């Protein structure tokens, strides 16, 4: 049986190693952007040649620009939040070791928190104000997914 020390005794992450951690992490956007572009163009083409028009040019441009702004703001925010999260992690008296069985637990915990954060965004006026941009499109298509609030990370 594992002891509490072996489960909760993960080492402290030195603050000066964060840049190395960030460089070692894969850049998933390199893979995601081509897939997003292909599926968006495919949906646009199908919509263009079908009776159900789900794209309006001005709205699509607006969604893409909101998405690019979100990407730029969140790039900066995620670096600040990474440093803050590691600083808080290092202050905790218990830290979970990285094992095969801790990843599913952390994934489910993160998904649970994300679900409730999103759900609260629909019922609380303050949080709705940070989320409504995602629901403001008149035509629902893949570019609507780009419409994410620039301040969404302040609430989660």
Protein model, in words:
The structure is a single chain. With 156 residues, the protein is mostly helical. The protein has one domain (4-154). 62% of the residues lie in helices and 0% in strands. It has six helices and no strands. It has helices at 4-8, 18-24, 29-49, 57-91, 102-123, 125-131. The longest helix has 35 residues, at 57-91. The radius of gyration is 20 Å and the shape is elongated. The chain starts with a helix and ends in a 25-residue tail after the last helix. The mean pLDDT is 86.
The pLDDT mean sits at 86
Domain unit count: 1
Class from helix and strand fractions? mainly alpha
User: Could you give a short account of the major beta sheet?
Assistant: none
Give the helix level as a range of percent. Answer: 55-70%
User: How would the global form be characterised?
Assistant: elongated
Write the H/E string, N to C: HHHHHH
What are the segments in which pLDDT stays under 50 over at least 5 consecutive residues? none
Estimate what percentage of residues fall within beta strands.
under 5%
The number of distinct β-strands equals: 0
Radius of gyration, Cα only, in angstroms?
20 Å
Distance between the termini: 35 Å
Number of helices: 6
